[in-house]
Every structure is written in C-alpha cells, then in structure tokens.
Request: fold
Amino acid sequence: MGKVASMRDAVAELVRDGDTVAIEGFTHLICFAAGQEIIRQRKRDLTLARLTPDLIYDQMVAAGVARKLIFSWLGNPGVGGLHAIRRRVENEDPAPLEIEEYSHFGMVGRYTAGASNLPFFPLRSYFETDLPKANPLIRPIRSPYGDETVYAVPPLKPGVTIVHAQRADAAGNTQMWGLLGCQKEAAFAAERVIVVVEELVDEAVVRADPNRTVIPGLIVDAVVVEPFGAHPSYVQGSYDRDNHFYRDWDMIAREPATLDAWLDEWVYGVAGRSEYAEKLGAERLASLRPSGSAPSGSVDYGVYK
Amino acid sequence: MSEPRRDAVGSAAGAGASAAGAAGSATGSAGAGASAAGSAGAGASAFSRSEMMIVAAARELAGQRVCFVGVGLPNIAVNLARLTVAPELELVYESGAFGSKPARLPLSIGDPTIVTGATAAVSMFELFSFYLQGGRVDVGFLGAAQIDRFGNINSTVIGDYEHPKTRLPGSGGACEIAINARQVFVIMRQSKRSFVDKIAFRTSPGNLGGAEAAAAIRREQGWLGSGPSIVVTDLGIYHFDDEGEMRLDSIHPGATLEQVRDTIGWEPKVADPLPVTPEPTVEELRLIREQLDPEGAYTK
Reply:
C-alpha cells in the first residue's frame, strides 16, 4: 500500500531525538495523535516549531520531549495560558526551555523561505518593536532597489513536519479544506513529511479534484490513517473542536500532578488513537459531529483529448 | 473589582423597556467598585460594564469595510457590529478566513464556523501577504495586556523578557496588524496593571513617543497604517489627540472620572465637555445574551 504506515512505525522511523519537529495546523487539523505518539515513544531533545503551540505542545513539553520551542502565539486559544510551558519559561520548572519567538507572519515567512530554498523572507513587520531585541535572528535589511528597509526572518527547515488532513491516497497525495494555515509551507520546508488523514481514498478521488491537493505525494514519506487523530482540535466537515476539553485543560495543566495523571491515563495508558477514541466514547464523539451538512457545489474540469 | 451578574435578561429583552432609560449620570454611583452600570430601575435595562464595552466597540465599526479580527474581546465586538451597525463588514481572521459569516460566536479565531459560508478560505501566507500587507484591511481590531498613553501595546511579557514575571501569549499577528492595517482599534478593560505609564515590552507599535515622530517614522518606513485611533474600555471611549496621546472622549453610563483615574497609570486627558456613551439598546443586549454569548464567556 505505498506509504501507508501505522502511527507507531511512522513516528519511530521518521521522528528522531534532537529533531526540529513541526506539527502544524492553525486551530484546525492539529495532529494530537502524532504528538501523543511522540510522547509515548519518549523522544527527547526535540525543537518544537508551531505558530501556536496549543495544547499539544503543552502536553509534549510537560512530558519532557522538548528542549526548545519556536513559536509566535503562546496560549490556549479562547481560554487562557499554557501552564506547563509557562512553568518552564517563567520558573524553569522543572527545567529551562529555550524559546525563539516571532510573529505569525514571521513564522509563515520562515516556512515559506524554507520551502522555497531562499536565504530569508522579507516582511513589513517588527518596526519599532522589541521583538528584534528579544530575537536577534529578526534583522533589518535594505532593499536593493531603493532606500526602503524591511525586516527579514531566516528559513525554517524542520527535520520532520506532521500534517493532518481530511484525506490522502496511498501515495501521499493529500487534500484538505477549511483553514489551511501554513501546512503546505511547513511540509515543503521539511526533510521528512508524515501525513495523517481521516480517510484513505483512491487515487482517482484525488485526480478528480486537483485544485484541492495541498501536499503532493512527492514530498510525503508516510501516510497514517487515524480517524479522530486531530481531537481535541477539529477537522472541517468531520468533527468540531472539543472546546470543553480546551477549557478542561486549563485546570488539568495548572498543577504538574494532575497533568501527569492525565498523561498517564490518556497518553501512556492507551496504545494509540483508536483506543483513545474508544475511551472518549461514542457519545462524546457523536456530540462533536457538525450539526448539519454543507457540501460544496461540484465543478467541471472538462475532458480534453 | 467584580463584574455584575447579568441578572436582567428578562427585563431587558421584554416589556418594551426603554433602552435609553437610565442614561447619563456620569457622576452617579461612585460607590467603590460599584459596577452595575444602568442599575435596574423600572423601565430601564441593566447591563454590565463588559456589555457596555462590547456595544461601544461594535458601534465604532459603522461605515468600515474590512476588519481584521483579533483574539478575545474583538471577536464578539466585531460580530456584534456585523449584526447591527455594519452589515456589510468583511471579517478577516488571521487563521485564513475572509468574509466570514459565523453562525455561532467562535470561541477561538480558528473555529470551523468562520469557514462555512465565508467568501474565501486562504492560506496564512496569502492572508498576511496579500490581504494585510497588501493594504486591504481598513481596521485591525486588537486586544492587549498592556497599553501606554500613545497606544503602544504589550502582549508579550510582564517583567524582564529573559526572566519574565508573567509570560503572555506574544504577538500572534498583532505586530504586523498594527503596522499594516489602515487604522487600529483596541478593546480592553482598564486597570492600573493594563493602562501603564511604561509598557514592559513593545509588541505592537502605536504612536511611539508622540504623534509627530510616529507619523514621520511611519512615512519613512512605508508603513501603510496610521496607527491606533480608538481605544474602548469598560469605562469609556478614547481617541488620540494631536500629540498622539489618548484622550477620554466619552464616559460610559455609571462610570465616574474617579474610577477612570484610579485605573490608569498616568493622568489622562479628558474631553471637556465629556459626553456619556449612549446605553446599549435592548436589541444590542439581546444579541449579546441570546445569540452571541449565551454562556457569558466574553461578558463575565
């Protein structure tokens, strides 16, 4: 079946201690299943890159897989802070965590430069702010075509990027819809790519709608089929964001003891995503289904012989 | 300071209660921390300070075309504007949605409801490069942890950057929004910790050290934005004067100048005469309570 692999094998083979890992997806399509498998396999010394570390990196940092974080917005969206990461940053509790901080556009630009094999990405941001002082990798450059100064950010080339999506074929041709974040840029910038999908489809499904293909199999190393793999994040059209869990996490993560107990029960205590989904229960999962259907119209690409 | 419970939903929504009921009395109810704004008298609707703030912020969007919606309070204010004073408003979310028509108030700015029925769902590269940096955004609507008199914003740290007392979320898209949106609106609650003489970290530039210098720098460096123009708080509405400094131009009903001064880290400029912000209407309150935020996530 081409590149289709189990999550366990994909992570074991493609995520290495010391790697820079990007699990992208902006609120949408965040692959918690992969992050939790990385925790289970006790990977170490990772540099974790994401625009919004979100709960998944809070969990991974708490579990001790990371030594460094590259980000642009460090919070629990709509709820508050990320307590495990804050403990590391504010109190070095239980250990320091190196950080490298940008703005959203800066992070998007870093992946874009990485994906396009450019030495930097120029942007009109950071003027008259303290961000370049906090992160000396954000540097002013003069335009070669005039007097203007803009800022530059360096390319980011993750060792491995992990992307969740609605569907892919066995060769890794991946289609997604809804918020696209910067998954395409992060995937093209990476040395290795794992795609995790809700559904494995026939190649003909992909070829029937080429405009929807965001990541070509060309750059994909493994395809993992993992329904509900994004929970408590969401998948447009399949299941909703589990906002209750995002609120619950605020309490769970406040104390290291409750956080550790949660990891024991929900990460170390399950073999993988299907067991996790079973443990969540059919009722919880059903409650996350969209309240109705909103199909797109179809378009006609035409046949040209 | 405790916010009042929203205890008058029934009376506000029903009985044709005159929304303009208990307007005025900027001098009234100075009782320490008393925060029930239009106290629920006969025929008047009670509303909380947060509701007044959200309503006042929404009204400022009348006549605007494209608004970049920030995390938190801007989300509910902008959505209220879309349902009231600015039905044609195009909502832009940094997650990559343009022309959103959310069917429920999104908890996060990446909620699926901002996609279904939107004009476009685009990559973040496109959103930040073409829509924002390309100059298509009229208003960037931001929240903040700290702001100074010139509208410079800190959302990064309290204390030293290397060893922060409190680590805040950071820029997200706020830094580039403050530079590239044609103008910036801010919504935030007032307190001595948030309205400070000197911010701990400049995440998003405002009028820097004053209007003239800021305008020169913005021109020289080719910023598209003219910077902050409005700050709406739980106590009043501020604009920026010729020196680029915040000036209280309207005080919310029930709030007092004493409360304003007690929650601000510098001696604020105050318009004279100082009008009182018109109270929320019955319909504005109904939309907030029944449609936008029935769980009170934003108004608590």
Q: What stands out?
A: Residues 10 and 168 of chain A are 16 Å apart (CA to CA). DSSP finds twelve helices and twelve strands in chain A. Residues 120-153 of chain A form one domain. Chain A has two domains: 7-103+157-287, 120-153.
